[in-house]
C-alpha cells in the first residue's frame, strides 16, 4: 500500500503527517506500507519542510527526508490512499481526478481522528504562525494517524474512505 499526504505547499502539514505516519507504521510493524507527500500548489517545490515543522517534529522523535513536490494527476496511479489535510486541498485533489477510482482514493486525514463523530475536522495550516501552531498541528496529526494505523491493522480503511465519500 502507498499512502500520500497532501496539503497546500508541502512544507508544513503534509511532511509532518508523512513523518508521523512513517514512524507510527514502523512502530506497528507495518512494513508493507510506503508514504510520500505533496502539495496542491507549486510554491515551494524542491524545498525542505518548514523549520518549525522540523523542529517540533524532531522534538517528538520524527525524521524528515522529503522535499516539497506538487500533486499531479499522475499521483493517482501511484497512491492507494490520498490523505488531504483540509477540505480545500481535498477539493483541489478531486478536481484533478479523471476517474471514479481516483476519487475513491481521496479522504481527509481527519476522517481517522478520535473525534470524527463530531465531523471531520481540517488540520489548520500553521504557515506564518508561531511555533505553538505547529505543536497543535502535530497533536491533531498524531491523533488521526493513530486512527489510520489502527484502521490499516483491522482492515477498515476502505470503510472509512467510503463513509466519508458518501457525505461529500
UniProtKB/TrEMBL annotation:
Q: In its keyword annotation, does this UniProt entry include Cell wall biogenesis/degradation?
A: no
A GO molecular function assigned to this protein is: protein tyrosine phosphatase activity
Keywords, sorted A to Z: Hydrolase, Protein phosphatase
> Which InterPro entries is this protein grouped with?
LMW_PTPase (IPR050438), Ptyr_pPase (IPR023485), Ptyr_pPase_sf (IPR036196), Tyr_phospatase_low_mol_wt (IPR017867)
Offer one Pfam family short name for this entry.
Answer: LMWPc
> Active site annotated at which positions?
7, 13, 125
Q: Which SMART domains match?
A: LMWPc (SM00226)
Top-level taxon of origin: Bacteria
Which EC main class describes this enzyme?
Answer: hydrolase
EC number annotated for this UniProt entry: 3.1.3.48
Give the family, as the similarity comment puts it. Belongs to the low molecular weight phosphotyrosine protein phosphatase family.
**PANTHER family for this protein:** LOW MOLECULAR WEIGHT PHOSPHOTYROSINE PROTEIN PHOSPHATASE, LOW MOLECULAR WEIGHT PROTEIN TYROSINE PHOSPHATASE
Provide the protein name.
protein-tyrosine-phosphatase
Amino acid at each position: 500500500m502507498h499512502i500520500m499526504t497532501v496539503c497546500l505547499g508541502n512544507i508544513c502539514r503534509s511532511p509532518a503527517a508523512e513523518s508521523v505516519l512513517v514512524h507510527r507504521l514502523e512502530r506497528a510493524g507495518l512494513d508493507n506500507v510506503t508514504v510520500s507527500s505533496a502539495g496542491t500548489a507549486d510554491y515551494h517545490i524542491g524545498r525542505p519542510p518548514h523549520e518549525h515543522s522540523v523542529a517540533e517534529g524532531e522534538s517528538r522523535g520524527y525524521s524528515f527526508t522529503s522535499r516539497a513536490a506538487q500533486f499531479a494527476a499522475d499521483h493517482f496511479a501511484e497512491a492507494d490512499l490520498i490523505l488531504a489535510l483540509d477540505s480545500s486541498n481535498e477539493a483541489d485533489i478531486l478536481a484533478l481526478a479523471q476517474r471514479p477510482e481516483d476519487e475513491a482514493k481521496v479522504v481527509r486525514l481527519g476522517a481517522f481522528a478520535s473525534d470524527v463523530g463530531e465531523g471531520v475536522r481540517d488540520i489548520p495550516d500553521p504557515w506564518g504562525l508561531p511555533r505553538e501552531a505547529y505543536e497543535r498541528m502535530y497533536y491533531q496529526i498524531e491523533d488521526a494517524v493513530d486512527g489510520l494505523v489502527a484502521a490499516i491493522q483491522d482492515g477498515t480503511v476502505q470503510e472509512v474512505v467510503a463513509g466519508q465519500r458518501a457525505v461529500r
